[in-house]
Every structure is written in C-alpha cells, then in structure tokens.
Amino acid sequence: MYADANGIRVHYQVEGREGAPWVTFVTGIANDTTMWDGQVPVLQDDFRILRIDSRGHGGTQATEGDYTFDILIGDVLGLWDTLEIRRSHLVGLGLGGSTSLGLAIEHSDRLLSLVPCACRAVMVTELASIWPELVEQVKAGGMEAIAETTVQRWFTEEFKAANPDVLDSVRTQILGTNPLGYFGCVAAFLKLDFGNLIERISVPTLFISGADDQRGGPPTVMQDLVGMVPGARHVSVPNAAHICNIQNPDGFNEVLGTFLRQPVG
Predict the structure, then answer these.
(1) What are 147-178's pLDDT values in tens digits?
(2) What is the model's pTM?
(3) In this structure, how many other beta carbons lie within 10 angstroms of the beta carbon of residue 133?
C-alpha cells in the first residue's frame, strides 16, 4: 500500500484485526517492512498492525540531501494522520528505534506505548567514524558494496552458519535500499543527539536489546537509557545480536507480546 505523507510517497502494510489497538513498526537502516515478518503472526489476532518503510527504504520514496530525525518522525506522523490513527503502540529497531525515541519525546500523546529496540539516543565517536566510510563505499559500488559486511555484522557467527536462507532475505532488504535513502539516514544518524530529552517520554516504555549486540544498541547502552525514562524497563533477548527480532523471533515475540498486551491507561 502507498500513501502521500509528509511530502513523499510512503510504502506501508496493514494487517491484523480491524478495530483493535494499533501497533506501528518502523524499520532499521537498510531494512524494509519484511524485517517484521516474524512478529505479525503472533500479534495479528489482538492488534491492528502498521509496518512502515522508512524514507528511501523499501518502497518508500527517497529524497535527495541529508535527512534529520525530525523528517523521519514527520513521515510516521504524516502517515498516521493520513490513515486517521490517533494513537498507536510504537516499535522500532536501530534507525527505527531512534526515530521512535524522537517521536515519543515530542508526541507522547500519540502513543499507547513505546518499544525502542537495539538503538541509541546519542551518536558516539566509535560509530560516527564508521558511517562516512560506508557512505563512500556505497557511492563507489552501490549497496552491493556493503551488503555482505552489513549482514555479517548484524548476526552471530553460529546463527549465520545455520541460517543462510535468513541471511539471503536480509541481503535482499539491503540491496533494495535506495542509496539516496541510505545517505540521508546516515546523515540523520551522525546528528543523533536526543540526550536528556528522553526524560520527557511519558508513556509505558520497554527497551529491548539483543544480548550479543556489540555495536548497534548493546544491552549496556539500552540499560543506561532505562534510567532516563520514568518507569521504563529493559529486556535483553538471549541468543540474538543486533537484529534481535529476526535472530530470535520466539524470544523477541514473547517479550514484546507480553508488554503490548498489558492494560494501557
């Protein structure tokens, strides 16, 4: 499905029970809506599910120039307005997790709850030095130039050896990313600095990490964020690295489903 929102054409999917509470899933960088395929079956009986391709990713239109998190947040809000979604649970991983944090800071009134996964609230030097190099590789050789190294970084060695079909599907997501969208989102990442602003978040919040994530949003980073959001909790999914919802969908789904099904005030 497609809709005009925030000045671009946004690709999205809607599934689940009509009239049920909305759950919105926002993708990570170089991912598309298929990254959430493992979550839909366990939630669709109880929720109305919205999956969104981030700007320049999957089927969503890319625009030239640097993106900001304000732009990415505006894409989500714009689609909600177009679809007349007043409030929704919000789940995002990586880029989508940071987008969800930013949305919750300024628009908690639009949320039923918040689930940022494997993400950061502030860019750190360790990562800031890596992104420009990746951009140069894509400029020289397209998304193919980083597809393999990215897949290798996102999962544990044991999982990669046992699940070549999953790696193939994730490579397809990476290769389907518009380079303009990749460049734009990297620019947003490099300026990421929510800092103490996340103290403003005023909805039930669950941080989820992959226990084996070493860089994207490690458990230690996510636990630090918990202390800044009133009433927030953190759960680390075992046997999972950065893309924890794909590497251990059963563990991830148990944590997410339990949280989403709690009564919302």
Answers:
(1) 999 999 999 999 999 999 999 999 999 999 99
(2) 0.97
(3) 9
